[in-house]
Amino acid sequence: MTIPTIDADRLWATHMDMARIGATADGGSNRQALSAEDAEARALLRDWCAPLDLRFEQDAIGNMFLRREGTDQTTGAVAFGSHLDTVPTGGRFDGVFGVLAALEVMRVLHAAGHRTRAPLELVNWTNEEGSRFRPAMMGSRVHAGNMTLEAALAIADDQGVTVSDSLRSSGQAGPLTPSPRGWTCWLEAHIEQGPVLEAEAADIGIVTGTMHARYLQLTIAGEPSHVGPTTMDRRRDSLAAAAEIILEVERIGRAAEPLGRASATWIDNAPNARGAVSAITRLHCDVRHELAESAVALEVELRTAMAAISARRRVAIDTDPYATFGPVAFDARLGTLLRDTAAARQLVTRDIIAAAGHDSVLIAPLCPSAMLFVPSRDGITHNPREYTIPEHLAHGAQVLLDAVLDLAR
Ligand code: GLV
Ligand code: MN
Ligand code: MN
Q1: What residue's CA is closest to ligand 1, atom 1?
Q2: Residue 147 gets which letter from DSSP?
């Protein structure tokens, strides 16, 4: 058999077609999980898969599986994919690349009439981003048993719309009970989202593992009062306390570099009224580090700082540590396969640790799992300027195809 080659132009055009859904005026993508735009993107993926002789299955959290049968009915599938949802300020490649590279693999094999021994499954996970419904990686969490389906269905967005309602209204509530599918292995291609590969002129990042991250939702409770007559010393201002906490988070994150980070990303304030001192402020934070114990230490440091702020400002702070991810070490044998596969294509590789969360973190305990990265221009992501040159996307998809063929042989 001639070695199948991915079609770089088709891969790029497919990205640009997908980017029309939820396109923002500044050239980015806004397809938040289980929105109308996400549903449209999912429908387009299914349209693209229709001529490829794939069997579609969907579970009750909306995860999509598109299966290509192999010649051996007795072996588990080689699975690969990523996510189509984005953050509100998303770009055109985060997650999308892993799904569309997987689609390109299926297209190439279909056109070549090539049947692998093991079945193949293309996967689109629900709500990887977690910006509308927390936590991130929700679909893969439920699939892996890290979170119950019932708990996930009950989560509401900032407008009070639940995951359950959104699955139904977007037509994405499938009949399958989420559970592991007996895969022999899992691969995810993704953009790096950082500056390392570009800076070192590497073509492919071999992701050896991920950071450990800890997500915290804080509720800071003070007391509403009038901004005029209430003297400064009598105030219990939740917004001012939140401001101090945000700066503490940033200080802790700066001190933890280069291996750690800390971020405050979301705020909700009440009464949020011009004449009133704030009474309830909710804040979302996360701390992360390559070393698990150091991530825990960052959280302890933050909690200590918050206790001091709480006492001094006489505000109550409730901390909901609602989710974590990682650390994960990806499968070394798969890492070697990806490295050798890339080298055989004359591509320069570099080992790298993922600082962002990925569905692969949840799948790694289920079966041997690995990720490959392609470079991100200027390391920019979760931003409309997110960009990867077509040639790099093509390299990543080719390495994915070569590795899949090796694993499913
Ligand atoms: C999600 O992708 C995260 O890194 O928090
Ligand atoms: Mn992603
Ligand atoms: Mn993302």
Answers
A1: 357
A2: S
Query: Any idea which ligand is nearest the CA of 84?
Result: 2
Q: What is the pLDDT of residues 121-160, one digit of tens each?
A: 999 999 999 999 999 999 999 999 999 999 999 999 999 9
pLDDT of 1 > 80? The answer is: no
- Supply the residue whose CA is at minimum distance from atom 5 of ligand 1: 357
- Ligand 1 contact, 136 CB (< 6 A): yes
CA distances from 24 to 13, 88, 92, 240, 408 (A): 18, 9, 10, 33, 39
SS3 call for 51: helix
Which stretches of 103-203 are assigned E, i.e. beta strand?
120-124, 185-191
Q: Please determine, for residue 91, whether its predicted confidence score (pLDDT) is greater than 90.
A: yes
Which amino acid type is present at position 227? V
In the prediction, which pLDDT does 3 show? 81
Segment 217-257, tens digit of pLDDT: 999 999 999 999 999 999 999 999 999 999 999 999 999 99
Task: Measure the N-to-C terminal CA separation of the chain; round to a whole number of Å.
Answer: 12
Q: Residue 71: its pLDDT value, please?
A: 98
Which protein residue has the closest C-alpha to ligand 1 atom 2?
Answer: 357
Q: Is 163 in the pocket of ligand 1 (CB under 6 A)?
A: no
Helix (H, G, I), strand (E, B) or coil at 185: strand
Using CA atoms, how far residue 402 sits from 101, 339, 395, 398, 408, in Å, is: 12, 11, 11, 6, 10
- Determine how many CB atoms are found less than 10 A away from the CB of residue 336: 12
396 lines ligand 1 (CB under 6 A): no
